[in-house]
Specification:
alpha/beta, Glutamyl-tRNA Synthetase, domain 2, Ribosomal Protein L25, Chain P, seven-stranded mixed β-sheet, 13 helices, 25% helix, binds adenosine-5'-triphosphate, binds magnesium ion, protein biosynthesis, glutamine-tRNA ligase activity, nucleotide-binding, Glu/Gln-tRNA-synth_Ib_codon-bd, Rossmann-like_a/b/a_fold
Amino acid sequence: MSADSKKAHNFIESLIKDEISSGKHTGKVVTRFPPEPNGYLHVGHAKSICLNFGIADTFGGECNLRFDDTNPEKESQEYIDAIRQDVQWLGYEWAGEVRYASDYFDAIYGYAVELIEKGKAYVCSLTAEQMAEYRGNLKEPGRNSPDRDRPVEENLKLFQDMRDGKYQNGELVLRAKIDMASPNMNLRDPILYRIRYAEHHQTGDKWCIYPMYDFTHPISDAMEGITHSLCTLEFEDHRPLYDWVLDNITPPARPHQTEFARLNLNYTITSKRKLKRLVDEGFVDGWNDPRMPTISGMRHRGYTPKSIRTFCDMIGVNKAGGTVDVGMLEFAIREDLNTRAPRAMCVMRPLKVTLTNYPEGQSETLTLPVHPQNEEMGTREVPWTRTLYIDRDDFVEEPPRKWKRLAPDQAVRLRGGYVMTCREVVRDGDGNIVELKCEYDPKTLGVNPEGYKPNGVIHWVSESDSVEADINLYDRLFNHESPDSDKDGDFVDHLNPESLTRLTGARVEKSLAQPRTDLPYQFEREGYFFFDESASDAGKLVFNRTVTLRDSWAGAQNKS
Ligand code: ATP
Ligand code: MG
């Protein structure tokens, strides 16, 4: 795809086009996606992934995957593996090997020494409390550390001693010497290195000092020849520090940072820390619980990579923050599945129907399309027998006006089959309806009945030729538009108690005995459902509801 063949997708793309046409940027465009492996990726990360890989693709460049791994205590191999899988599943390929900021620890250490030698960094012995006090605040300038003018030789020796393990956690730090009166707090002699006796998932116990994010990131970008370092708006105030680092060392390349707005979705939490809490405290069944806004949770629920990429395209990329309606994400998956999902019938709450005029032991095979608008998807066989199941909700004894389903002495068509009329309601000893006795009209396969009109069309399965299934009806995890907005409250108070309804004993047509694992099905009249391979076993199929056919929340929102 050539960059000038069509309109820019977003402001970053236009910016790069301008840089190229004015000659400010020459050569390849190189971006990176830099997750910290301290949790699983969520839908917010998808925005950043689509942007970084998308920009590289648009300009025929490259995008790296780099783990920003400077906090060993919070990180793990499990997260690294999950993140790699998620990026690939979304359909993106990073350039070359996976990279780690920890690959550059030696180089970063070298640049720290360079800063010390230039008199631009010093070892400071203030305690954390003292440092906070010396730092001042937005109204008052900070004060210089008493160690600020420590001679270069002494700084070099102390920094080496920090590395050699001669000091304890928190005893000393290395700081940049910038400006304690700067209105930008990030420039008030920020910490570059701290002591941390922690085993690192990549470097083991090689280091007991670790560089801070703000020092690591620009250097890692430069080491990889990143040209455009795209990050979210909260780093805007860090950009002067990003530039200071690169302007005060001799980097192998000179990347530049550009910020864009984070994705905020209503009814959703997009913070790894908070999502981790939901997992750790058992509010959900793990990071890939289908209710989680994680990429792995969405995958488990039946979201397709295409739908997530379409969603990211729809929301665009801009400078101003804002909140996106989660309904847009649901719209994107419905759009994708509507055109591609195979159709099938599933009776969620089975009610037995006996066709009194259909001979016992007889059956016939109906042939139904897999997709009504796409012949290429082929057909499926659905057996018609004397005993069937329909959904309990599709029958009432006293129908309201305009009832479009079954009622006593009324007729409905069974999807793809015949028209039948209800003649008798059978009850158990407690008065519960346990069966309907109906008559089918043998002249109605594919044609309208003569002399009467059926009420509507309902779905069904044959008793003997259907398979039992459990159904997980998932709904939004939170019932509050911005679950983490109230300062004194706790976001877990807004968990939706009805986010999961489990139905057992549902029945699916027998063409689903070995369900597809690549795409959800549309269960006619019910919604989209994805086979849950990990929860199913030989005796029982489990399906997860990806999304309903229509947005059932839109009306509710308008009412309030
Ligand atoms: P979290 O608060 O969930 O931990 P983070 O920003 O700390 O998010 P990182 O692993 O550091 O998570 O993020 C990797 C990249 O993804 C960063 O460039 C970050 O800016 C971007 N990113 C994270 N959350 C969002 C979001 N909600 N919208 C867009 N980009 C995001
Ligand atoms: Mg982060």
